[in-house]
Write a structure and sequence with these properties.
Shape of chain B: globular
Number of helices of chain A: 0
Radius of gyration of chain B: 13 Å
Oligomer: heterodimer
Low-confidence stretches of chain B: none
Number of strands of chain A: 11
Strand content of chain B: over 45%
Order of helices and strands of chain A: EEEEEEEEEEE
Helix content of chain B: under 10%
Shape of chain A: globular
Low-confidence stretches of chain A: none
Strand content of chain A: over 45%
Amino acid sequence: RKEVEQDPGPFNVPEGATVAFNCTYSNSASQSFFWYRQDCRKEPKLLMSVYSSGNEDGRFTAQLNRASQYISLLIRDSKLSDSATYLCVVTRPNQGGKLIFGQGTELSVKP
Amino acid sequence: EAGVAQSPRYKIIEKRQSVAFWCNPISGHATLYWYQQILGQGPKLLIQFQNNGVVDDSQLPKDRFSAERLKGVDSTLKIQPAKLEDSAVYLCASSVGQGPFNEQFFGPGTRLTVL
């Protein structure tokens, strides 16, 4: 079983739609949680950190459920520019900055 | 501020040949990472340096892969001999420090094709 699992998609949605991505992680000791965005043939970039209290950045909302070992990302009012692969990322305790990536979920927003 | 620089951007080699990739991190970043991203997968850490010392190389296939960061600044990753399964994008990243909340900034990657 992979340490971080995501639905690979693709998710095809119209502009203006709300879309949610889910991610589960297997290591209950996982310490920190992030969502990264990766455009086609580009490098990953940090989208947002994820906290137990939940956090919001504009149209993006991230949630963490430690009991269920589950992370989510909600995108409201999707834009064409949101088309990308969204990578769920966790870290382990005492392993410095080592990032453990899921395989990514591909999003395609259509006009 | 300049980002993480990598070269070459693309490389095509035949199996059993050797190849080397170069990375120059953001100025002042002490921590440098090499990740391997196979098509359809997320990046996987190969090696992490703190200044010129290795912090984690547990997933580096040491029989064929080597990496160095001799002066604590730029770094090279070498594969010798290459196998078909080494075809991937090799991403270099850097951060100010080691902790998980030090944001990692990725370079554009080197796309390797092994024939």
